[in-house]
Design a protein that fits this description.
Elements (H helix, E strand, L loop, with lengths): L1 H5 L8 H12 L8 E5 L6 H10 L3 E5 L6 H5 L4 E4 L17 E4 L3 E2 L5 E2 L4 H4 L5 E2 L6 H25 L1
Bound molecules: nicotinamide-adenine-dinucleotide.
Length: 162
């Protein structure tokens, strides 16, 4: 599946990046020619996210915990997708006006509150599109997992009726 995904062939996509792509589609957010920064390079989010974006002709930069100056990358980006697991890492002064910010992070604070990797309150008036936590990427992940399940069931049915 990874090989098929990277080659832009029909495949089972990892649910979280799949959900983010669906969100772009639903909100008519153009990707072709856009500068996109993906923060986090895990196998389940960052790496597949970058592949899907490259296949849509975005110019993609992938950052990680060793990235020297995160702000120098994010402040030039049209779209920032953050998936690191560090509460409030992405702040208002790190993005340009009108940026699209997709917050994948899910962090439980000591107070019990669930927050993302982006500082939602600080960013909300600066971004043209910003996903909340909770109620943003999480439900999209669940929806895409169900979509993959239905696709798998349909494929099995087809195989069994042959
Ligand atoms: P992971 O721990 O496997 O990877 C984290 C990545 O972030 C690594 O590449 C690491 O180098 C990078 N990173 C860590 N600190 C950084 C920093 N200060 N600056 C830049 N990069 C940094 O995590 P994961 O499985 O990709 O998950 C990331 C977050 O997304 C977690 O909060 C997780 O709970 C959440 N998540 C949410 C969903 C969803 O459906 N919303 C799905 C998967 C993961």
């Amino acid at each position: 599946n990874v090989g098929r995904m990277v080659s832009n062939l029909d495949s089972f996509l990892p649910a979280t990046p799949f959900g983010v792509m669906r969100m772009f589609e639903e909100h008519n957010i153009e990707l072709s020619g856009k500068d996109v920064v993906v923060i986090g390079s895990s196998d389940i989010v960052g790496k597949p996210m970058a592949s899907l974006l490259i296949n849509r002709k975005a110019t993609v930069t992938v950052c990680n915990s060793r990235t020297k100056d995160l702000k120098s990358h994010t402040s030039k980006a049209d779209i920032v997708i953050i998936a690191v697991g560090v509460p409030y890492l992405l702040k208002e002064d790190m993005v340009k006006d009108g940026a699209v910010v997709i917050d994948v992070g899910i962090n439980r604070l000591d107070t019990g509150k669930l927050v993302g990797d982006a500082d939602f309150e600080g960013l909300k008036n600066k971004c043209s599109f910003l996903t909340p936590v909770s109620g943003g990427v999480g439900p999209m992940t669940i929806a895409m997992l169900l979509k993959n399940t239905i696709k798998a069931a349909n494929l099995r049915d087809k195989r069994e009726t042959k």
